[in-house]
Amino acid sequence: MPETNGHSNGTNGQHAVGARNIRPDGMDKVTGRARFGADYNLAGQLIGRVLRSPHPHARIVSIDTSKAEALPGVKAVITRDDFPDQSSEFIPAGEMMMNYRDVVRNVMAREKALYEGHAVAAVAATSVAIARRALKLIDVKYEVLPHVIDVVEAMAPNAPLLHDDLFTLGVEPKPEKPSNVAKRIEIKLGDVEAGFGKADIIVDREFKTAPVHQGYIEPHAALATVSEDGTTEVWTTTQGHYIVRAHCARLLGMDIGKVRVTATEIGGGFGGKTVVYLEPLAIALSKKAKRPVKMVMSREEVFKASGPTSGATVRVKMGATKDGKFVAGFAELKYQAGAFQGSPVQPGVFCAYAPYDIENVHVIGYDVVSNRPKVAAYRAPGAPISEYAVESVVDEIAKKLGIDPIQLRMMNAAREGTKAAYGPKFGPIGLEETLNSIKKTEHWNTPLRKWQGRGVASGFWFNIGGETCVSLTVNEDGTVSLMAGTPDIGGLRASLAAVAADELGVPYDKVRPIIGDTGSLGFNFLTGGSRSAFSGSMAIVEAAKLIKADLIARACKLWEAKPDQVEWKDGAVRPLGALAEKVKPMTVVDFAKVAGKTGGPIAGLGRINAQGAGPSFGTHLVDLEVDPETGRVTILRYTVAQDAGKALHPAYVEGQYQGGAVQGIGWALNEEYVYGADGKLQNAGFLDYRMPVASDVPMIDTVLVEVGNPKHPYGVRGVGETPIVPPLGAIANAMEAATGIRFTELPMSPPKVLKALKDKGLNKA
Amino acid sequence: MARVVLIGNLAQLTGGVVEFDLSATSVKQLFEQLAELHPAIKPHLEDGIAVAIDGQIYQDALLEPIGPTSEVYLLPAIAGGAQPGRRGARGECCTEQASAPPSRLRSAGA
User: Fold this and answer.
1) The whole model's pTM is what?
2) Smallest Cβ distance to A612: which of B56, B75, B91?
3) What sign for the dihedral angle of Cα A728, A734, A735, A736?
4) What is the predicted ipTM?
5) Which domain holds residue A522?
6) Is residue B12 domain-resident?
C-alpha cells in the first residue's frame, strides 16, 4: 500500500472505505427529488418525436416532409438529409466497437430501413399532439425487401442481404461475395485435437440463447438546445456524457468544445446507455427550430429501437479424463449483431473458457447481422452466452463422472499463474475462494424435495480501466466537494466519497460528491466495463496526493520548517521531532480556515489512464422448483459469491451481485424477443416481455470475497459485470437436477419446460 | 529479448507468424518494431489493441515498460481502449486491410 493511504479517518479513527455509508444520492431518490432524463425542461422547448419504419427491411425510395412542415405548430423536420455521411471508423460503444458509418445510419436510416422501428424522420412541434399528427403527414415510400431474423438463417448462402458491401473479415481465402457474416474470429491454445485424443469422456452440445433487453426502467430521454452561434447544451440519461458529446459532435460536424453535455440521474443502463439514439436528433431539430427540443422514448420504442444484447447459437465440445481433468475445449459462437456489425462475440470468445485451466482450447466466433435493432452492450457483453454453454457442459461432465460439481470446478479452476485461453497468465484471482465460499454455505447443504433442483456455475469478466478525471476541492469550512465525470449507475458517488474521506482525513458526510458536466473536467471514458469505481478511486487517490503535498508545503511555510520535519499522517500534517513541541498538527479543516492567506484555494485534479484492472470471478448457487403441471419455475434460494478485491461500499457491491443475479434469472427463465413471420417484434412492452419483479425472486444472499488487486491502492476490482455471467448456467444446471432434462435453449419459459416434460412423460407430479 | 505473442486474428497481418522475440523496452518500441517487420499490422496497433505484459493487461499505454524477459501478448482491446473524438479508432483486431475486398470499410476510406 502506498504511504499516502493511511486509510484512517483523522476525525474519528474509523475507515469510510469498507463501511456501509449512507448513500449521498439516496435522499433525493427516495423522495422523488432526483432529476432523471425526462425531468429536465427549458423555457420554450419543443417536443420531438420520431417516425419509425414499419418494415423490418425496406429500401427507402423517397421521403416527402412537405405536408408535415406545413402543419401549424411544427417547427422542424429532419431526415437522412440532415446528417452528413460518415467515413468508416470504428469507435468503442460500451464494451464493443461500432463504426461511425453505421452509427449515422442507425440514428437515422439512409438507403434502407434495416429493422422495424428504425428511425426514418423526426419532428419538433409545440405539442405532443401536433408532433404525432406531423409524423402521420410524412410520406415515406418504401420498397419492401425480404428480411431475416434468425442468426443461423442469416448465415445461409441464400439469406436476404442487409448490406451488399459487407464482406466477411478474418477468413482465408478472402470472400468474393458479400454476406451477413461481418467477421470470423478465433483463438487457439495448444492442440485441441490432441487434447480430445487424451479424453476419456467428451460432451458435445449445441445451445441457443434469445436476445434480451437491458430492461432499464428509465427510457432514453434527451433535451438539447443550440444557440445561434452553435453553442450546444444537452441533458441526457447516459452512461457516458463525454461519449455522447464526441458522437454528436462527429455526427453533426461540431467542435467538441462547443458541446456541453450533462448526465442526468440515470434509471438503469446496464450497458444499453453507452450509445446515442435521441441526442443527435434533438440537437439537429433544435438547430433547425432555433428552440430547445425534448425527446423521450416510449417503452415500445425502447424495445424496438434501442439495443438489446445478442441472441446466439453456440456449440461447445469439452473433453476430460476419467479423474476429472479438462484436457480440451472447443466452441463455436454465432452471435447476432442486429442490423449493423459489432456483436459482443469477441469477449464471448475470450471468456468462454476463462474460468478454467485447460491446455488445449479452440474457440471460433462469428459476428452476424440480421434485421433486428443493433445490439448494445449489456453487462459483461457476450460472456453470459458463451459461459452458459460451457458451464452447462461442465455440469454434464461432473454428472457423467460422478464428481461433485464444485469439486470438478475446483480441480480445473484458473488460479494465479494459469494461462488464460485468450493469452496472458492471470495474476492473483479469486475463483477458488468463491467456490470454497459457496461450498461452506448452509445453502449448499440444505436438502431438497422432489421437483426441486440445485445448480452451480462460475463466471468471469476481464474488467477495465481507462481515462478518468476527477477533482477534489476543499471548501472554506473544510468540507470537500468531489466531482467525477462518469455517471453514477451503481454507487460511484458513495464509493469515491469514502476514498476521499479516508485519503484526506475528513468525515464521510463532509464529502459531497457530484457528477460534473463535460465542461467541468477532462475527458472521461464512460461508465462500463466495471471501471468507474476502480478507475475513479485511483484518480481520487491521485487528486488527494496533490492536495496533501500542497498542504505539507503550506505547513512548511507557516512553521518555517523543512519538508523532512513534517509528515501527513492520520488525516493531518504533523510536525516531527523538536518541531512537534512548538506547533500543533493541522487538519484539512485547519488549512481551509487559512487557505486564502497561505496560497489560495485548496484543490486537486486527479487525471489518469487507469491500468491494472483485476479480473473478477464469481460462483452462483441456485435452488429452484419446477411445477410439472404448468412448467413454471420458481427460484427458491440463490447465493452469489464473487471476488470484489476490496469492497469500497459493501452494500453497493452486494447490490451489484443481487442485480446481476436477478437479470440473469430473467435471461434464463423468461426474457426473449418474439418476432412474427412478418419480422415485427410482438412483445415490445413489459407486460409481454417478462422480466423478473421483486415477487418473482427470493432475497439473493451474497458472499463478499476479497482477494486484493495488487495494482489498485485499495485492492479494488470491478464488480458490476461478473454477476450476470453465472446465473444462466447455474439455473440450467438446477433445471437438469430437478427434471433430469438438459435444457439447451433459453429462455426456459413455462411452454418450453412443459413441452420438455411432456416429451419425457414427466408432466404429472 | 521479450517474447511477443499475437492472439486472435492479428496473425493474419503477419503472414501467420504468431510469436516474435523483440528487444523492445516499451510498448511504443514494441509497436515500432512489429510495424517495421510487418507493415500491414501498423494501422491496427494504433488503436483497438490491448497489451498484456507478464499477465497484466494494458490499454492505451504506449509508455509502459517491457522487461528483457517479459512475456507480452497482443490482443484486441477488451473494451474502449480508444476514445471517440480523441482520435480515429480502428477497432478490435479488424482485418480490413488484410482481407482487402472492396468492402464498405475500405471503400469508405478506413
Assistant:
1) 0.94
2) B56
3) positive
4) 0.84
5) 26-34+469-602
6) yes
